[in-house]
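User: Hey, my collaborator sent me this sequence without any context and asked if I could get a structure. I don't really work with proteins. Can you help?
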Amino acid sequence: MFDFRFYEIWRSQDYIDTLILGVWNSFWLTVVGSFFGITLGILLALAQGREMPLWLRIPAVSYVEFIRNTPFIVQLFFVVFGLPLLLGYAWSLEASVVLAIALNFSAYFGEVIRAGIQSVPAGQSEGAMALGMSRWQTIRDVILPQAIAKVFPSMTSQFVFLFLTTGLVSEIGVKDLTWAGRYVADRTFRDFEVFIVLTILYMGMVYLFKGGFALMFRAAFPWWGKSR
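Assistant: No problem. I've predicted the 3D structure and written it out in structure-token form, which is a compact way to encode the shape of the chain:
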């Protein structure tokens, strides 16, 4: 029978501090990256509208297809090691990771939001225009709130899936939760126990994010349940 030795993880304050740091880094990198990703995703969704000119639609569609059909690890390596060579800048690893996460998340969120926009009845836009609202006001006050409210559960699921892929940032030395687990496992030789702990921590963060999204939905769309 396998001899579980979880105490090997807790016996050192260094291991505990490393895991706590990993949780914090995974949390803030994902939150900051997803904030910019959602912002860019909204712009990508709008840019792909049928009423938009081809010079705007084609680059937006091409970008989304490129991001969604290439691995995140390849995108990460390109942003961290390729862009500094091409553009001549020197960012910290964390800043590069935020950029890579934002670029990756934006394509997926953009497609989800685009589906939400297309699901809003055309009569909503026509009614807003008849009331004298401008095109931008119609999008901002009528179309986007309904679209995002409709696809919010899908956005939450997509966010969770993408968050779980961010463990790949450990491959470039960023001290996220996966990196912390490998750090502890390499020193305790208790890989099985360490990755059980990582599983519990990742699941805890997922439920934390889900709870946060649920609160955000209630705060942002209090009218949703009443309007249906």
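In plain terms: Residues 13-47 form the longest helix (35 residues). You can pass these tokens on to your collaborator as they are.
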